[in-house]
Design goal:
Strand content: 25-35%
Shape: globular
Number of helices: 3
Helix content: 40-55%
Order of helices and strands: EHEEHHE
Distance between the termini: 14 Å
Structural class: alpha+beta
Length: about 100
């Protein structure tokens, strides 16, 4: 069963450009580490401090293997450090979804 991870980010609205740089960095890292990146979304109108991402995996086990690869990938570690040092992500929530089959 394929699972999709929905990530909801609460941002510092004055540091949205930094989050966008962070998100762009994941565009090559996530697929290389085994995730099927559906995309990142930035605030455009309305709420200015919520962004989101969707990444799919073949299974929960595939997700766990991906998370392990992220911890050893140099670009991934650098991107996590960039976020931590600049504190533009105030909160992050993950929801694991499954598609309803017809």
């Amino acid at each position: 069963m394929t699972i999709t991870v929905f990530i909801r980010y609460q941002l510092d609205p004055f540091k949205r450009a930094m989050f966008e740089e962070y998100a762009r960095n994941w565009l090559s890292i996530i697929p290389r580490c085994g995730g099927d990146l559906i995309g990142y979304w930035m605030p455009h109108e309305g709420t200015n401090n919520i962004a989101s991402a969707l990444v799919s995996f073949e299974s929960l086990a595939a997700y766990e293997a991906y998370r392990a690869r992220l911890r050893t990938d140099k670009e991934s570690v650098a991107n996590f450090n960039f976020a931590e040092e600049n504190r533009f992500i105030l909160a992050e929530e993950r929801t694991f979804l499954r598609k309803i089959a017809l």
